[in-house]
Amino acid sequence: MFASAQRILAGTAGWWLLSATTPAIAQHHPAPAAGHPASPQSMHVTTTPAAKDARDSAGVEHAMNALFDKPEAPLKVAPISIEGVHAVAGWIQGDRGGRALLRKEAGRWSIEVCGGDGLRSADVLAIAGIDRSTAIRLAAKVADAEKTLPADDVRKFALFEGLLDVKGDVKHGHGGQTGHGGPAHHGAPAGHAGPAAHGPAGQGNAHAK
């Protein structure tokens, strides 16, 4: 019995010595070996500005296509300039074109204003409801983005005369209720019955916010 007690004490002392000189396994997280992915606990997901811009650009394009794209009249949306929750997108559909001002709310982009060259201006963007400093930054981004475009694309953006308050709602000028030719014309923003419809003979230089 005395010999058994000695063995127990010796074993206890050996365990204490081992625990005192060896880091606890639960606290030891060795670096993953080459070729092996790190554990989920050691990974931190970071959203880069480039990834966020890509998601926002995709959201802007989706909002535009949802209203205007048609198989027989595909909509080209570019360039897309984003500043915070505001964006200006150029669009071309056939031989027509223009620009749109969009806003993101609750994670979704919607069109607020359709226009032409006015949406390149910080003054017009401010009139449309954007704070002045944001409007200046957004206008600068629009100018930079359009520098690399073919001249004919930029010319088409100017074909949309005046401003049309849309606010992302098809009933506000995109559903045939305001004399813009109805849904058949709005297979494209270009379907605003042409620039004349937005001048004195049509909707005027309509509805800036």
Structure description:
By secondary structure, this protein is α+β, with helices and mostly antiparallel strands. The protein has one domain. 34% of the residues lie in helices and 18% in strands. It is built from 6 helices and 5 strands. It has helices spanning 2-21, 49-68, 122-127, 132-146, 151-157, 182-185, and strands at 76-83, 86-93, 96-105, 108-115, 163-165. Strands 1-2-3-4-5 form a 5-stranded antiparallel beta sheet. β2 and β3 form a beta hairpin. The N and C termini lie far apart (96 Å). 29% of the residues are buried. Residues 4-29 and 168-209 have low confidence and may be disordered.
Number of domains: 1
Distance between the termini: 96 Å
Give the mean pLDDT: 73
Strand order of the largest sheet: 1-2-3-4-5
Strand content: 15-25%
Gyration radius over CA: 30 Å
State the total count of DSSP E strands: 5
- Major beta sheet, specifics? 5 strands, antiparallel
Which shape, going by the Cα principal axes?
Answer: globular
Helix/strand-derived class? alpha+beta
Helix content: 25-40%
What's the helix-strand series?
HHEEEEHHHEH
Number of helices: 6
**Uncertain segments:** 4-29, 168-209
Structural features:
209 residues; five-stranded antiparallel beta sheet; 6 helices
Topology diagram in text:
Blueprint: H1 2-21, H2 49-68, E1 76-83, E2 86-93, E3 96-105, E4 108-115, H3 122-127, H4 132-146, H5 151-157, E5 163-165, H6 182-185
Antiparallel strand pairs: 1-2, 2-3, 3-4, 4-5
